Amino acid sequence: MSSEHEITTTVNGTRFTRSVESRLLLSDFIRHELGLTGTHVGCEHGVCGACTILYDGLPARSCLMFAAQAHGHEITTVEGLAPERGRLHPLQAAFRAAHGLQCGYCTAGILMTMTAFLAEHPSPSEGEVREALSGNLCRCTGYQHIVDAVLAAAARLRAESPA
Amino acid sequence: MKPAPFSYVAVESLDRALAVKAEHGDDARFLAGGQSLVPAMNFRLAQPAVVVDINPLAELDFVRAAGAGGLRIGALTRGRTLERDPLVADRQPLVHEAMPHVAHPQIRNRGTLGGNLAHADPASELPALMLALDARLRATSARGERWIEAREFFRGVLTTALRADELLAEVELPALPPRAGTCFMEVARRRGDYAMLGVAAVIALGEDGRCTDARLAYCNAGETPVSAAKAAQALVGGRLGDAEIRDAAAAAQREIDPPGNVHATAAFQRHLAAVLTERTLRTALARAKAGR
What we know:
The complex is a heterodimer of chains A (about 160) and B (about 290).
Chain A: E1 4-11, E2 14-21, H1 26-33, E3 52-55, E4 58-61, E5 74-76, H2 90-97, H3 107-120, H4 126-132, H5 144-160
Parallel strand pairs in A: 1-5
Antiparallel strand pairs in A: 1-2, 3-4, 3-5
Helix pairs in contact in A: 2-5
Chain B: E1 7-10, H1 14-24, E2 28-31, H2 37-42, E3 50-53, E4 63-66, E5 70-74, H3 79-84, H4 86-91, H5 93-98, H6 105-108, H7 113-119, H8 125-132, E6 136-141, E7 144-149, H9 150-153, E8 154-156, E9 159-160, E10 167-173, E11 180-187, E12 197-205, E13 211-219, E14 226-227, H10 229-233, H11 242-255, H12 266-290
Parallel strand pairs in B: 1-3, 2-3
Antiparallel strand pairs in B: 4-5, 5-10, 6-7, 6-10, 8-9, 11-12, 12-13, 13-14
Helix pairs in contact in B: 11-12
């Protein structure tokens, strides 16, 4: 039991070992220790969803976890979505094409929420998309273009990997 | 907003978790899903000296059949599992129906049954479900263990019957009575928000069609989850039709005493209680008759 811990965690496929303070939030670890600033920090109490990452493949608020809890676990951040430099993930491409973002602050969290959602729901209805979006706040778009982008990405992903 | 400094230990055994809690008492907090504790720590409303991370304790993450129709659910079971587990859906359809209302998918991926109940937020759905389902909760400590009835467990806002050295380890949901129907409904401004009011209803019918059991429990209607026991009891023994259900809804509306809050006045909560009680009873009755 201590206030300093050595942790090893896999982030976007790369293993990192760092010494962290107990109280360091996972969101701050990702941004400040690893320099992965694509994960944004909004409310820091689990309401806005901006800091959503994948923890062992499932969306979670990184502001509601401690860095120490990442020890031995796999994290995916928005930087891990694109298949290679210069190419976007189909969901990212759809957000660009459909104007699914304006200021972009909420975008990384929404991308992480919706990639996991589309993996489980390849053919969602508009209502299901809106419900899945309920845990991510956006104050710019009014959500319509985000919904359009997610539906377009779902169609594109289905075309790429027919069942 | 950052937590105050604390010591952290991810425990490798239940014995170790209980030993640390016994040593530090109220200065130590168990960390399960962290979806209520960590926000409180970020706001520094909670400043535990020691955080005991119980996430490594896989033995507390289970859903098991118990007897004919009952369930035992480990405290570390995530909301996601409660929402999707086929055994939960089959044996406790009320839980299956209510889970999508419990916060958002990201929260349900982390948040646990035990953490939710030990947090004892009266606005939360799960405590009300525990009342409606006559749940028993197993508390364990280095001294031993004891079972606590759900109606004895919730003592006030964020306050439970758990002692300073106890861990909520599991929940037992007894089998629903034969020919039971259940229903959960709530009204919230947005999907995933806390309900302005929520109702869980259970109805059971005898072979002759008369009501043999009725229960009504409410979330966000007081300092704890609350029952409308008298209104529900008045249904027992009778044949249920529209008039009986309307009378029960009116009686439940009088019986509970919602305090009102920033999102809904007490008068509006009372209005919701009547409307939602009538609808949940009607649906639960139809389900009981249909045998599901």
